[in-house]
Amino acid sequence: MPNNEDKYEIALIGNPNVGKSTLFNALTGENVYIGNWPGVTVEKKEGEFTYNGKKFKVVDLPGVYSLTANSIDEVVARDYILNEKPDLVVNIVDATSLERNLYLTLQLMEIGTNLLLALNKMDLAEKSGINIDINKLEKLLGVRVVPISAAKKMGIEELKKVISEEVKNKKFTKIEYPKLEPYIKKIVSILQKDENLKKYNLKYLAIKLLERDKYIEELIKNSKVWNELNSVLNKIMEELAKKYGESELGIVEERYKIIDKIVSEVVRKTSGKLTTTQMLDDVLTDEKVGILLLIPMLWMLFKFAFDVSAPFSAMINYGFGVLADIVKSSIPNKFIASLLSDGIISGVGAVLTFFPILAFLFFALSLLEESGYMARIPFIADRIMNKFGLPGKAIIPLVMGFGCNVPAIMATRTIENEKDRILTIIINPLMSCSARLPIYAFFAGALFQKYQGLVVISMYALGLCLALILAILFRKFIFKSSPMPLIVELPPYHLPNLNVVLMNTWDRVYDFLKKAGTIIVFGVMLVWFLSVYGPSGFLGVDALHNSQLIEKSYVAIIGKTLTPIFSPMGWDWRACSALVFGFIAKEVVVGSMAVLYGVGEENLVSILAKVFTPVSAYAYMAFCLIYTPCLATLAVIKQEIGWKWAVFTLIYELVLAYIVALIITVVGSGILHLFSVI
């Protein structure tokens, strides 16, 4: 956006849970545009507002604790500020946690931005007996400070007024660290020798070099001054190591010295009473009680989302079924009618069936986020999850996976470290989603009537155990690093803002429908073509409901090709073909088997009892649990972390499913043989 006297670009930045989204919505209203930052899956949110005839484009940067660039969010935020150079950076600071929030503020001052502080949650600070001297804070930082309460829309107009004034000033902030200034000046004097580096803030580069920032080091390594600079840096690092224990801790310690001084001068606490947050945290974050309370809390979240969404999903399913019937009966050409009804409409229906599940799940998660409890869940679970090579924040996606892997994978966006996030995503499909339950129910009813409940539960346990075992193995052999230490802000508990909750819910659901939906529709249409066509050509749309016709289709050919591979398990070509349909959606496996065996679903149980043994049936159930994620899950994996990891997940799960099914067959047959001999 070009900068002129009537149009400006401002950026909002702050720690997670400081009320940034609430302020963004208060400033922009409904003028919001959602997308992704180039090259990454981090959400990009932009909006606009007008004040006194001036237009302001607002860019909502990811919530970050620092600009050290250890995570995608930090890289996105830092690169935007460095490269795009917005007219003004509005740093949202939580008034109830000034000490922690000012760490990011100092880093923004190091970059040399045109900075403005929005001191949010002033109402909560006052209730907690925290008084902040705004004038003194402005003087010490050299930055304008506006007290607000975004949730109550207090101070928003004043903030807009100050924004309109500050965008013109172009007053770039500065920060000095007295004990480090001699080192910083020495580094700057060397950097100045390269004309190509003068387009950057040299003091900022010097500070980042003291931190051994890899990005900045790579930026300067090609410089003609690098050899001289590197020699000087090594000597400086030796001196800092003697003073601070570790050289990189020097700048961190000096930042906190300044922060401590500021806080001691501007903050006064007038009440020593326990706050509601403190009282709740004494119970909810307790090492033992917190875990015991977390389990029913997650169960309620899961129960709410799937029980409430069930009738809506059923209505969508029914509505698209009726629409498909209308299309079939009103279009004379059977090919076009079937393509539209069984291909396109079924594909769109498959996508929209996820809509209620996603909506209610993300609604529930947004409520927990806005209430303040969500930030505590990783803190409570971190120690347990770390034992399996997973971060504490993986607990939410893994539990959500028992309902649906699609929103579960999308929920990993809260995991800052990229390796931790990828690991959580690629093991998530092993969590047994609700779509697999019909498969378990049919097989358990057909071959394990006395132990149906135990058999079904064993499938959920098997998936969880495999996920945790693979997490340990992948961590050791692929990612070769420990989970990132958990640094999390514990915001005060408060009543959720319904508008923010609804907007967050819609943004997340829309993102899935837009990106993953196209892949799902394409996949459903592909299976339709494979089912109604064969080597002899078009078989007719009746092949979808006729076991004799479908035997001549490409789907049947694929199934018969797979039969020799699965012969050790004792599955026929129909069972193998059903697995192909299961790639679209796991719940389709049962209906596909009914068509392939030429019976209705109500008679399928008796057929399964004849063509499967207990061992081959249990192996088939395990294979359906583990093998290739459904198309929607694969689509969302590709959306979140790219094709490379989507293909990796597809391949490793196929191999793992085969190995597990084979082991079950061999061990199970051996046990049965042993008992028959005895």
From TrEMBL:
Gene Ontology annotations for the cellular component aspect, listed alphabetically: plasma membrane
Binding site for Mg(2+): N25, A26, T28, G29
Residues that coordinate or bind GTP: 14-21, 39-43, 60-63, 120-123, 149-151
TM region positions: 289-306, 343-368, 388-410, 422-448, 454-474, 512-533, 578-597, 617-637, 649-675
UniProt superkingdom: Archaea
Keywords, comma-separated and alphabetical: Cell membrane, GTP-binding, Ion transport, Iron, Iron transport, Magnesium, Membrane, Metal-binding, Nucleotide-binding, Transmembrane, Transmembrane helix, Transport
Subcellular location: Cell membrane
Residue intervals of the FeoB-type G domain: 7-169
UniProt topology in membrane: Multi-pass membrane protein
Main location per the UniProt record: membrane
One MF annotation (Gene Ontology) recorded for this entry: metal ion binding
Alphabetical list of NCBIfam families matching this protein: feoB, small_GTP
PANTHER family (UniProt xref): FE(2+) TRANSPORTER FEOB, FERROUS IRON TRANSPORT PROTEIN B
Name by which UniProt lists this protein: Ferrous iron transport protein B
Organism: Methanocaldococcus lauensis
